[in-house]
Write the structure tokens for this entry.
Amino acid sequence: MKLVISKQTLVSALQIITPITDKSSSKPILSNFLLKATGTDSEGRVEFSATDYEISIQGEFPARVEQEGTVCISAKRVLEICREFLSDEVNVGADEQLWVSLAGGPARLRLPSVEIGLYPSMEIMELPNRFRISTTELKRSIQLTLFATLTTETRKNLMGVCLQLDSGGNVRFVSTDGHRLAQVSRKVELIAGEDPPEVIIPRKSLLEMQRVLDNSEEMVEIAFDERNLLLTSGKMVMTTRLIEGKFPNVEPVIPKDNDKTISVNRERVVNALKIVSIMSNDKIKPVKLTLSSGKMRLESEQAEYGDVADELDVEGYQGEEMSIGFNARYLLDVFNEVSPSETVEMKMKGPLNPCLIQIPEDSGFLSVVMPLRIEW
Amino acid sequence: MGKISLLPDALINKIAAGEVVERPASVVKELVENSLDSGARRIQINIVNGGRDLISVLDDGQGMGEEDTRLAVLRHATSKISREEHLEAIATLGFRGEALASIAAVSRFELTSCRDELEGGFRLVLEGGREISAGRVGFPRGTRVVVEELFLNTPARRKFLRAAATELQHIQQAVINSAFANPGVGFRLTHNNRTLQDLPPASGLGERTLQLLGPEFAAGLLAVSGGEGLLSYEGLVSRPSFSQSSRRWQYLFVNGRHVRNPGIQHAIGHAYRTLLMKDRHPAYILMLNLQPSEVDVNVHPAKTEVRLRNPQLVHTVLSRDIHRQVMESSRSDFSGRAVSAAEGRVLGDLRQGDLGVVSYAGAQGREQAGDTEGDQSAAASWGGVQDSRLPATQGPENSARIFRGRYSISGDAGEYAGEQAGRPEEELAAAPSGRGPEAGMAEGMTEGMTAGMAAGMAVNPLSGGGFHFQPLVTGAGRETALLDTRTVVLSQFHNTYILAQRGDTLLLVDQHAAHERILFEQYRSQFYEGRMLTEPYLLPPTLELSAQNALLLEQYLPQWKKMGFGIEPFGRNTFRLEHVPALISGRNVEGLIMEVLDELALFGKSGRLEEVFNEILERTACHSAIRAGMTLSREEMEALMGQLSGLEINLYCPHGRPVWVDFPLAELERRFKRTV
């Protein structure tokens, strides 16, 4: 094998696949990736592929290929060294004994290839339910739901984002950790799908998907069945297994009749929440919101340390004073993720009822946060 | 011909022998127990070749006449019980009447006994259970049993005997167990004519411990005692600084019998919560006395297992009492080198030789405070466990205590309330004899107290001068001798240790560990005494439990609720989790609930929740505490030391690392060869 590839292409391809080549894995072979050169000269292509059994990524990039061939080498090591090369191009070669050399200018890396046959095979499946979505919309949808997923392994079905697609081309992303939820609805271009199943995309796959999307073209295609999901973006394909299980029906817990609505300035609230939550060392940062006409007061609930309070103007609320306790972290998560939106709407009912959070710019988004209960 | 027939006696004896006589050590144990039951003051045990060839046990007990000697080797022949009711209240070690017959069935057996020296002795020789010879011999008062060629007619068992050295180990262990349980009896053990143990009758457990484990080991132990209702205990337990890497040095005796009981062992381990590092274990020799009707020893022929009628209460009392006594010892460690005083106490006990004399002031105080809730619930629980589980419903004036007590399951609401309530009385009781922590020592302090003690008494309110600490963190009942402590901060070493002087002692304080301990105590009191913060679910998870666990959960629903868990029955064995304590937000709540249920099933109570809560508070404390390597101003160091002296436990950080080490002037002078 012999080829020349631009350093930038090589590095960005490796940056996408390296996170899934887990070195600490019990299968050391999974720390490697496959590099396959096909075609000749200007027609040449290099395919990068890697898998950790859960997620597989394959990407094809242009290169000047002098001699075809395939090698299987450590992703992390190649990335770390190639990144430091001073030249714009990298020469890749392999001899019959499968010693691979990568040279960028005078600097050169030589390392042995693993027997290619030992690397798990990846195949791209044909999946029945397919739609197209803009890369920006998908990225935003992931960002707006990922934060509410469960991170401890207690309820597996909550450790990802649920994807719902109907035959009218409406897609919905939903996530919840049991105490709060986030939901994004979008209209997409449906390609195929009759009664598509509800599926749950693992958290880890979504994090990886964000990296792939950072290097994607304008539109991407998603295809899935009950067990796998495929993201295609130009010459890049990412496959992920899905979480088996049923996602809870969140429809009944989304408040419909919360009548105490306020509009607040996002940055102002984030700032106030940060000030108030500094008083607490715990993971949970209790904050008390007190609404009165045109005003919202935020107070820390850690009386032992002293008090801290902040007050800001709000629009919309006219009525009796009402106090409601929240985990400041939950509010901060939503308020941070909806950036750059300027205004946020909070719809409340009472101190023990869930609070609905929405933004005027995006009617497809909503989040629900359960208040904290403070027993005196 | 029918297939079922009654077994001949000889075979029954051989089978029974298999249960009782597992190895030479079990023979020794049985024979020694017989000697003890006969009132022996001295017991001589001779072993040849690991007990394979010869085991001989000679005692000076009351002996038997000819008729009794003959009866003794029959199965179920015993002088110890005669009616069924006696089984309910067994006060002797042996009672089943199987031992001698079983041993005789599998060996060459010689029993010589004399009740009255004028009458002379009687000797009976059996082989494999058959009588070989019998006749009168001259013999002093007492009994001797000689067992030769053990398992001579059960080759299978003989084949399974281990090397002589291994068997000897077990025999020694059996003798040590008996020696601990009977300090007043002299023991002598020889092997192949070499003396291995020679223990003259001791005046108490303290002296026996000194004989068996040596002075260094004994100095690492702390005398504890106490009791409640039908239970009392005394013994020696590790100081937290004297933890062990294994559970080997844990001797538990119930009514004079060496036993294993996971529940009790768990309780003692629990008493050291937050005081020991992971994988460190306390050493202890603990004598537990229960009314015979409260304990069933007839569980296994070897009688190493016991069943308690009321395991929850025993657990509660032991873990609470021992925890407090150990904590007080580590607190007095800080207040002016009382360590040496406490060491003096044990040594004094050893010399004085009767642990029973040292009564624990706290226990007395609690008894006097008979009207506190803790006592009520504990007393009530003897009558019925259910009563003690719901002590919280006893009236509004107790709500504050209940609140503090809300965090541990089962009878503990009473436990903590009792602890809190008991404190003022404790101090009252202690008042005449001195300051709180030392009160218990007062009676133990006799002429045995020497230089070390004197040094300990010098809590030096007069010496020094300089910074006078006011405890910044106080709470009800936290006034201690430490209020008088004067410590002068000298400097900081390596940006990690605070150098301080207290009287004639140089202190090195680990600034991180100290701050960590201070914060931990602050967080803990905030959490346990503050108002409860719970996090409700938007989508409540359901718990599917086994029928047994469902019952268990339901039984303790009010306790769960008090700790901030909203659990609602959801049909059959399913429950719905409505809300959880905010502290454990983001944790595996379902897993935690299962762990607690497992402990409840096994031990009848669980400290798991408290452990988890503490662990989270510990971590928060650790992250917020000042680090090693930080330069501290004099004011900061003084503030830190001041807060430290106001705490109840300040010897160890929550992970069990020491907070400070000290160098008494006397020790430094020795090292500089100023004194010898």
About this structure: The mean pLDDT of chain A is 89. The interface with chain B takes residues 151-155, 176, 178-181, 248, 250, 253, 281-284, 286, 301-304, 325, 327, 352, 354, 368-376 of chain A (CB under 8 Å). The domain at 254-369 of chain A is CATH 3.10.150.10 (DNA Polymerase III; Chain A, domain 2).
